[in-house]
Specification:
By secondary structure, this protein is an alpha+beta fold. It folds into 3 domains: about 30 residues, no CATH class; about 110 residues, no CATH class; about 30 residues, no CATH class. About 40% of the residues lie in helices and about 20% in strands. Strands 1-2-3-4-5 form a 5-stranded mixed β-sheet. A hairpin with a 4-residue loop joins β1 and β2. The protein starts with a helix and ends with a helix. The protein binds iron/sulfur cluster (SF4). Iron/sulfur cluster binds next to α5.
Length: about 170
């Protein structure tokens, strides 16, 4: 049934994904999921000039984002923490209420984790937005410290930018 729905949404989907879907369904059956009262809800923040999408809102008002990746043994990936923090910023502006965090649903493993948004997550979102806007203005970003440049396919293009000086950071 779900596969038929998927075919309606993505008619050209690779048939090999059928076995992936089956393994996701098997994994998800082991977990008790909170039913959603709304799905695919657009969110935005005028203050931070960002838009996004919440995948599910549960009956208790908490929100979830759905990931097609496996879960870490504990916690959430840093990119998912930023997604949760960005959505929290949007929802706070839209509702006028504090949003403490949200769930990340890792479908291949059939688990969900609540991430409590930390001040450092909010700082990182704002810093990332500043960097993105600077890049859009034509600035080229500095090399981060400890970047894996030796095995990076963009090394040649990147070399002309130069490294970041400690005096920039301290
Ligand atoms: S070479 Fe690659 S890893 Fe190194 S700073 Fe540039 S983009 Fe990042």
């Amino acid at each position: 049934m779900i596969w038929e729905e998927l075919l309606s949404v993505r008619p050209g989907i690779d048939p090999d994904f059928r076995s992936f879907l089956d393994s996701c369904i098997t994994a998800c059956k082991k977990t008790e999921w909170k039913p959603a009262v709304q799905t695919d809800i657009p969110v935005k923040s005028d203050k931070h000039d960002i838009i996004g999408m919440v995948d599910r809102i549960a009956t208790d008002g908490t929100f979830s984002i759905i990931r097609a990746a496996g879960a870490m043994p504990f916690g959430t990936y840093s990119a998912d923490r930023l997604r949760i923090a960005s959505i929290a910023l949007c929802l706070e502006e839209m509702t006028g209420k504090e949003v403490t965090g949200g769930h990340v649903e890792y479908i291949p493993d059939g688990v969900y984790r609540f991430h409590t948004v930390q001040p450092r997550d909010r700082r990182q979102v704002i810093a990332t937005l500043h960097k993105i806007r600077a890049i859009h203005r034509g600035d080229r970003p500095h090399h981060p410290l400890n970047a894996p440049c030796n095995r990076c396919k963009y090394k040649e293009r990147c070399e002309s930018v130069g490294g970041r000086r400690l005096s920039d950071l301290l």
